[in-house]
Request: fold
Amino acid sequence: MANETFVTGKTLVGELVRNYPESIEILMSIGMHCLGCPASQAESLEEACAVHGFDPAGIIDAINEKIAASRSANA
Reply:
């Protein structure tokens, strides 16, 4: 399950936060504090990373790993 893809760069930030609350910790730790702003509801993770100056690939990988770990811990 560690290589499973739950989110991609096209995943909307609002959807990400709603469906995978474990991702909030990662986003907040990199300084992406706008998770509840209206724009985040229609902004993709890729777009949010670009606005904040982050490379989305590493963040997406970290989020998918966190979600996988959470799922396996709750299984």
